[in-house]
């Protein structure tokens, strides 16, 4: 009896998610830089644990966890699918379970999909980056992502920020190569095969230091089900590369020039800056490299104070 009721409730939730998905969007900042951010409804407007937020070194809590463990992320994915869903470019169809565990995570999480935002959604010390990649993972104890979104430990997203450089990023380049197949409005929601083989590892820089906090999906339904892991190390990307993503259409002759959500209130949540705990047996060299990372971070914090 009870089981039936719960199931009906979940179904109506996912129906709501679908009907909202066709209507929501981002402000057209090219047309009007002051266009207010639209109300997306539901938890997006009323939630107290929403994402993205500004990640700040100053005032963050110091955390130490066992290292994050990545399984199969180095496998070359030969059969990836890519889709322009009108809100982003999304990759799925991973050959094997890419499994994330360790850190502060209580369970194993598997990669469901990868998508990007231009410009970045999270900022670090108030600085916005040109691109943010989200690697969305589902807690293996839940059968699918819809179900996982109903629980606060349901989803983990790894956020990777990219900084402006003259050097093209090869992994992003591999994705861009197949972008022409999905750019037009006519091709929206029609998946295409990613021609270049790509390992998810290639999208992830060093995971030595990261911010982690409890937040939400940054798109409707804005479910507060996400453990965020945003890496402090960034990858280079050229503005030419980012501009390729800005050419995808979400309406006839309307390009998606920006798809980042505005910053949300932190609301006294714990923002933790993690430096991965080193095994005793690790070499001294590795430890001193870690120390250097902290000094660089502190340097950033000090520079912020001086501004
Ligand atoms: C997710 O799993 C639940 C429980 O097994 C099932 O009822 C539901 O239909 C699934 N949803 C999707 C989108 O696969
Ligand atoms: Zn995202």
From TrEMBL:
InterPro entries: CA_dom, CA_dom_sf, Carbonic_anhydrase_a-class, Carbonic_anhydrase_a-class_CS. GO terms for cellular component: cytoplasm. It is an enzyme of class 4 (lyase). Its cofactor is Zn(2+). Its EC number is 4.2.1.1. It catalyses: hydrogencarbonate + H(+) = CO2 + H2O. The keyword Isomerase does not apply. The keyword tRNA-binding does not apply. Transmembrane segments: none annotated. Residues 1-21 form the signal peptide. SUPFAM superfamilies: Carbonic anhydrase. Keywords: Lyase, Metal-binding, Signal, Zinc. Residues 22-275 form the Alpha-carbonic anhydrase domain. Belongs to the alpha-carbonic anhydrase family. Reversible hydration of carbon dioxide. This is Carbonic anhydrase. It comes from Drosophila hydei.
